[in-house]
Prior knowledge:
alpha+beta; 2 helices; 59% helix; flat
Amino acid sequence: MSTFSLNLISGRFTSEEAEYIIRKMVEAKIGLHMMRIETKNVSNEDVYHSEKRITQLQHEMELLVKLLKTMREDSKGGLVDLECSLNIQAPVHS
């Protein structure tokens, strides 16, 4: 099985920079789900899953914004360490 790992983000950022980076990633993921919903040959189950995931991502983004705002107010400069790795592999078919 072929696998690949990518260290996408690793560093210290202001809370504003971190919010920007994460927001763009979440927006891309929501956009993918929206595209799937708009596809003609998609099952009701897939639509339900995508809608549920969009809601979850939006809620988590709201929580993150609040956390980053608190960090900005509580510490000098609101610096945060951000780490994001991707592990990619083909699915195992049984």
